Amino acid sequence: MALREAMGRLLPLIEEALQEAVKPPDPAVKAHYGMMAYHLGFADVNLRPARASAGKRIRPLLCLLVTEATGGSIERAMPAAVALELLHNFSLVHDDIEDDSPTRRHRPTVWKVWGIPQAINVGDGLFALAHLALERLADQGVPPEIVLEALRAFDDTCRLLTEGQHLDLAFEEREQVSEEEYLQMIAGKSGALLGLSTQLGALVSGAEPAKVDAYRRFGLSIGRAFQIRDDILGIWGDEAVTGKSVQSDILSRKKSLPVVYALMQEGEAGQTLRAIYTQPEIAPEDVPEVLHWLEVAGSRAYAERMVREAHAQAMRALEEAQPLEPAGAALRELADSLVARAY
Predict the structure, then answer these.
(1) Given its phi and psi angles, is residue 132 left (phi above 0), alpha (psi -120 to 50 degrees) or beta?
(2) Is the confidence at residue 129, as pLDDT, over 80?
(3) What are the distances in angstroms from CA 276 to CA 98, 237, 316?
(4) How far apart are CA 168 and CA 98, in angstroms?
């Protein structure tokens, strides 16, 4: 399979570059960079070198696959791939604080181990390193005007990420959220970052603007499908596989798509769920009832249909981009795996 071959070839390069990016520049701040390495899966809680679950590296992988699909150089694009993964992980460190999440990838979160002040600083450090990594495109011979365009796209995505997170947190305190508002929120989170990943891969390769835009739309649509799949797993996933409690999204009154859809229904399911979600808090013993009424409302089936629609949009954008093979086949396989994933 094209994807398996590409992952076997690209992931070790990504891991090596990420480890290099978080090497401490001075012994005095070794612990600071060690905390970053811990979050990225390169260290244990004692900050000793270790290998732990570190996520799927989807964003740098997408970037590099698009680079190959547009005839570009992996070495030239690697700073962008590293920047994307560091940016993603900056957002995760801060998200864990904001969501009061004690674990991620089956391990204690950074704030849970070292406290909130240090975790905020670790996230800020990852953000700064991401920016510095992207600037190193110039060292790879990328023209200055392309580096500037990449930095502008990067910073605009950071703005969208904060807007999406603001809406996500604000929705937890609201009784009703429309589907349009929900889609705006996820466009500023998963959609924006995956769109940037594919956009940068094409941009750094020197692809023509129409192709860059097609790849950006491919990433945006995959991001939408990815987030809705995440919503489904957040309610109906296997905790042993996802590493996340299936109760947490319900207990925090997270307005994921299945919940948004059910709360909009006029029948008994919608009425009952609105009554539960307007309580001061949702108790653990309420979770089975919430799950029951979500099923009755048809929320899971609706969310699955939305995943398929977003995936179809992504495939149309990819076809429009006319990727070179075998990178195109790998991109199609990756898109398929992301929308069908169980974790």
Answers:
(1) alpha
(2) yes
(3) 23, 22, 40
(4) 11
SS3 323: coil
Among candidate residues 12, 119, 123, 107, the one with its CA nearest the CA of residue 57: 12
* DSSP state for residue 49 in the 8-state scheme: B
At 244 the pLDDT is 66
CA separation for the pair 92, 205 (Å, rounded): 28
pLDDT digit string (tens) for 182-194? Answer: 999 999 988 999 9
**Per-residue pLDDT at 262 exceeds 90:** yes
Residue extents of the structural domains in the chain: 2-339
In this structure, which topology does domain 2-339 adopt according to CATH?
Farnesyl Diphosphate Synthase (1.10.600)
My answer on whether omega of the bond before 284 falls inside 30° of 0, hence cis, is: no
Q: What span, in angstroms and rounded, lies between the C-alpha atoms of 138 and 147? A: 7
Q: How far apart are CA 13 and CA 120, in angstroms?
A: 28
Is the dihedral angle over the CA atoms 65, 69, 75, 78 positive or is it negative? negative
Binned at pLDDT 50, 70 and 90, residue 121 comes out as very high
- Rounded Cα distance, 327 and 325, in Å: 5
Residue pair 226/194 in contact by the 8 Å Cβ criterion: yes
Q: Which amino acid is at 163?
A: E
Distance of CA 282 to CAs 101, 185, 216, 247, 291, Å? 17, 23, 39, 10, 13
- Between strands 103-104 and 107-108, the pairing is antiparallel
pLDDT tens digit sequence for 197-209: 999 999 999 999 9
Range in 92-101, 107-116, 139-148, 316-325 the model is least confident about: 92-101
Whether residue 257 contacts residue 303, with contact meaning beta carbons closer than 8 Å, is answered with yes
In angstroms, rounded to a whole number, what is the distance separating the alpha carbons of residues 211 and 217? 10
User: Which residue, 197, 190, 229, 196, is CA-closest to 308?
Assistant: 229
Over the chain, what is the mean pLDDT?
A: 94
* Confidence at residue 243, expressed as pLDDT on a 0 to 100 scale: 61
User: How would residue 245 be classed by pLDDT, with cut points 50, 70 and 90?
Assistant: low
Q: Around Cβ 321, how many Cβ atoms within 10 Å?
A: 25
